[in-house]
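hey so i finally got around to running both of the ones u sent me last week. sorry it took forever, my laptop kept dying halfway thru and i had to restart like 3 times lol. anyway pasting them below in the order u listed, first the sequence line then the structure token line for each. didnt double check formatting much so if smth looks off just lmk and ill redo it

first one:
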Amino acid sequence: MISHKKMKFYGLRDLDNIPQLQNLSADQRFAIKVVSSVLPFRVNNYIIEELIDWDNVPEDPIFQLTFMQKEMLSDDQFRRMAFTLSNNHTFEEIQSAAEDIRLELNPHPAGQMTLNVPLMFDEPVKGVQHKYRETVLIFPSSGQTCHSYCTFCFRWAQFVGMNDLKFATDEAKSFQDYLAANKGVTDLLLTGGDPMIMSARNLAAYIEPFLESEFEHIRNIRIGTKSVAYWPYKFVTDKDADDTLRLFERVVNSGKHLAIMGHYNHWKELSTDVAQEAIRRIRSTGAQIRTQSPLVKNVNDSPDVWARMWKEQVKLGCIPYYFFVERNTGAKNYFSIPLYKAYQIYREAYQELSGLSRTVRGPSMSALPGKVSIEGVTQINGEKVFVLTLLQARNPEWVKKPFFAKYSEKATWLTDLRPAFGRDKFFYQDELNQMIRANNGQFYFNRSEDYEMIENTSFDADE
């Protein structure tokens, strides 16, 4: 019998009240405070009490996932923030220093603030991203936080109080009008933040309208969530746990497919009784759990971790789905791993699996043109190359067309790669440039990987 657990959050102001941190040195605790003043910090009592091995800190992977480390900022950034905190600066001055550093960390990669936001009646549809033809992402306004923040999170800019960097739906729910008018959309993905931070009642207010005949074209509803790993009590003993599961049942009984996109970064997140009971209860509704994670240095950069995690997921009835490359944002220099090594880790882990676990795709980069997968490393005409494909793309015609990049042991992202065989651009780049031009010039050429992508093409930024 799993006993009820009352959630308790710890944020930046609560760091000194976490007893387990007292075993760290004063310098270590100050470093956590410095970095947490720039990147969002939030952890809960389940993670502290049941997931982190405090005898293995700071190396413990769940500690690395949830507590900031000094090296997550550059030396210069850390010194600037530490100086501001240590010299009696005002709250406004501290915030200003933090925001300056945040803007250096590529807060919205892959065209999220520009190419992904659709227009309706010449106005942006708030809280919506529509990058791929069949799938629309919805960012519920009341779901733009999490049970805990991942230190590697590529959406960290949602949580730092900079409103111009936020995605969230408006009260008029114009996203419903947008989806009603777009009959080619088959998949709706609720994301955030974490939609499962919402009450069952609020979650139902977002989902239930799509069960009506007006939205017959919406066949699949996905919910992207870390709650299955960071607060599984949501589905087991929370006061509205049963109401949440009944909502899942209504979706399934309506004839739509419901997929819980579970974010698991390490097998330890599957190891507790409550985590396993949450999976059992979710699956009992007819919903499916698909799992995904980026490859994160200091957390899961080992084939053994991935193989063990995928095997355990299949044992529990989950479907391994995506092996991502950590995006080039936030503390990317701390977490990122060269692409050649990412492929090695994926391949070695994959070799340990039976066919039931080989549903997982990757290593995949959610980049400007789409989800770019590293399919292999080989020699062609004496040149060592990466073999790449697009698993999903802004233009569906690009999908699964093999293309090649020069082999590099330094590249950590698509924009670090150069076309092989003397070519000056990848096959999709001319059309991608046209998409950018057609976007009314709304394109951030400063501080983002989008600019780097354009640098790799023949597009003239002044056009």
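and the second one:
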Amino acid sequence: MFKKILIANRGEIALRVIRTCKEMGVQTVAVYSTADKDSLHVKFADEAVCIGPPSSTDSYLKMPNILAAAEITNADAIHPGYGFLSENATFSEMCRDHGVKFIGASPEMINGMGDKANAKDTMKKAGVPVVPGSDGLLKSAEEGMKLSKDIGYPVMIKATAGGGGKGMRLIWGDDEFEDAWDSARTEAKASFGNDGMYLEKFVEEPRHIEIQIAGDQYGKVSHLSERDCSIQRRHQKLVEEAPSPFVDEDLRTRMGEAAIAAGMAIKYEGVGTVEFLVDKHRDFFFMEMNTRIQVEHPVTEEVINHDLVKEQIKIAAGIPISGKNYLPQKHSIECRINAEDPFNNFRPSPGRIDVLHKPGGHGVRVDSHIYAGYTIPPYYDSMIAKLIVSAQTREEAIVKMERALSEFVIEGVKTTIPLHLKLMRNEKFIQGDFTTKFMDDFDINA
């Protein structure tokens, strides 16, 4: 087992990793920007190293600074959390070259799954269902229009290096194609430095359902059931739950087998997620694979009673997994609490938290780095907490979430708590009648 782990991240995920490390008897090193000097992850770690000014580019994304921090503290492993450098093949390779274990995917795995077109081709060869579309990148708008006629509109064009909804366009006919093609490529180039585009058939009435997997260096891969992440706004997840209200036993089995095949195809080591789009007929299609721990991992932990961060660290240390597939024993829901004003187009709301009261009670969990008197910096993602509840049934979990949200008091900044309260009281959500388009018609003021 590792003696000391440096956490190359901030906020709630850094604190989450620190807590598991303490339970495992592993020393921890926090890194922080000058804007985060008062963050809880800095206070809770055994050691802390400042790695730069507030800008992520000059701190949390500054690979030489992070590796220097690992060297001066004698850390023998680096946990990247999610976001930032968690799926950066160059950083993974630099860690390997410097003799520091990267608690995440290898450069080869990251490159293989990070390029969407390449990942789709790998999945097709592994027998994993994929959405009909282009074989690799499109050479021109004309090629895209010809293919669209063959597979049938509507179609989506997507940036091969994309994420967060950037470089994506929905196209319903030839007359829209060229304008969508030009704007998507321009956006992709500006966002990712890569304007490569591929095309897929648009799945109507889709749900976003993902399978958690774990794989070790000995060739074993297991699945840990599914999460439903369909409640999204502009491709950003708001609410996640496990199990999905849409998934039956047959679909869970088929998706689990496909996710294992995906992991086996790339000899996956670590904790990762295979994401699928599922249509109204319960046909599912590979979307992408995330080679890291995810924001929504707590709902899986709650329904299978298993610490995924601990599993991730053990795999990186060479400890084999059991190979057992896990099925959900309870129901869990996670609401992402952001410092944003949901009544004002989700405008970010950084600033000082004057009053804070976190909810409690049986089956209520809050993953957060905030406290009364803490100032939310304006430089990073606006998520400040994750509220997770678990209960025996989905109905009980919704009621518990509503109760917990009503207890969650954050004063001094605007938050998305009112939005989540509205969601928990929405009849369609309560009935499980939703797709990824649910938020398009949701009116928080209604």
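quick thing i noticed on the 2nd:
The two ends are 54 Å apart (CA to CA).
anyway thats it, ttyl
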